[in-house]
């Protein structure tokens, strides 16, 4: 069977075109995946590899093999190409409006809906379990890549202000070292909207293999990161590779992290005094 050239060297065919071109030469399991994708491309662009595998009733390795057979290095690269096909073939009206005021109103509505959805996803028992582990941890490492890295820094800073030893890792190598050196009862928190960020999944797996408590913050219930988490908290939102939904993703994650923070502080009797001292420590840095 012939494999198409790598995606970078074969731009003439889109993802859907490549599937149709190769369909006759696929094995039964790969053909099942290909058929599923062709029938539901608008759904697949929002799915993780785990969700697609469940829907198509195949293993994740079959999806990876199909992507490589089509000339893509992996599922994420394939999904980007598929999204481009879907966007090109489906003309959709832009809901953002034509004036700054209309665009602002649309963003406010979308953000409000996302925040409300996040509150419905809150699980009190999971929050309490995670809060207790964090409050009593000798060290907390928070890891995230890309935009999730900003949220990792945000939450680590919040924890530091109440006296918890916390470090944010946006460098995957340093995060791996952190996971490998977490002390007993240490906590590793992984933030990944898609739930499929390879480095973040790797960091939680490393920490959990050493018996450390792991917490995943994600928008996807069926995603690789959840397999390596002792607790999972969900923020609302839907991943679309070519959509710039950073604002709604940030705000839903920030809300979730702040709810977690307010669940942690009751476990810290000295939190008010620590907050006062940390506030005083930077008072000379402001006019």
TrEMBL record:
It holds the Pfam family HTH_6. It comes from the Bacteria. GO terms for molecular function: carbohydrate derivative binding; DNA binding; DNA-binding transcription factor activity. Keywords: DNA-binding, Transcription, Transcription regulation. Residues 130-270 form the SIS domain. CDD domains: SIS_RpiR (cd05013). Residues 13-89 form the HTH rpiR-type domain. One of its GO terms (biological process) is carbohydrate derivative metabolic process. InterPro entries: Homeodomain-like_sf (IPR009057), HTH_RpiR (IPR000281), RpiR-like (IPR047640), RpiR-like_SIS (IPR035472), SIS_dom (IPR001347), SIS_dom_sf (IPR046348), WH-like_DNA-bd_sf (IPR036388). Transmembrane segments: none annotated. This is Transcriptional regulator, RpiR family. It comes from Deinococcus maricopensis (strain DSM 21211 / LMG 22137 / NRRL B-23946 / LB-34).
């Amino acid at each position: 069977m012939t494999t198409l050239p790598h995606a970078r060297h074969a731009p003439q065919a889109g993802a859907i075109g490549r599937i149709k071109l190769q369909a006759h030469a696929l094995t039964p399991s790969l053909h099942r995946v290909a058929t599923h994708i062709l029938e539901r491309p608008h759904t697949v662009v929002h799915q993780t590899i785990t969700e697609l595998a469940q829907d198509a009733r195949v293993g994740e390795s079959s999806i990876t093999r199909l992507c490589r057979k089509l000339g893509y290095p992996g599922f994420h690269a394939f999904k980007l190409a598929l999204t481009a096909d879907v966007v090109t073939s489906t003309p959709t009206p832009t809901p953002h409006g034509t004036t700054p005021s209309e665009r602002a109103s649309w963003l406010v509505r979308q953000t409000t809906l996302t925040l409300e959805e996040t509150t419905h996803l809150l699980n009190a028992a999971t929050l309490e379990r995670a809060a207790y582990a964090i409050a009593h941890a000798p060290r907390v490492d928070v890891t995230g890549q890309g935009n999730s890295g900003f949220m990792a820094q945000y939450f680590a800073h919040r924890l530091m202000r109440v006296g918890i030893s916390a470090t944010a890792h946006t460098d995957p190598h340093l995060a791996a070292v952190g996971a490998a050196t977490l002390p007993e009862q240490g906590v590793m928190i992984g933030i990944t909207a898609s739930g499929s960020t390879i480095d973040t999944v790797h960091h939680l797996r490393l920490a959990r293999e050493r018996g450390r408590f792991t917490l995943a913050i994600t928008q996807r219930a069926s995603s690789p990161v959840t397999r390596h988490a002792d607790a999972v908290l969900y923020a609302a939102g839907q991943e679309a590779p070519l959509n710039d939904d950073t604002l709604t993703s940030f705000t839903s994650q920030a809300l979730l992290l702040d709810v977690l923070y307010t669940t942690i502080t009751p476990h810290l009797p000295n939190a008010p005094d620590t907050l006062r001292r940390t506030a005083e420590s930077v008072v000379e840095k402001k006019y």
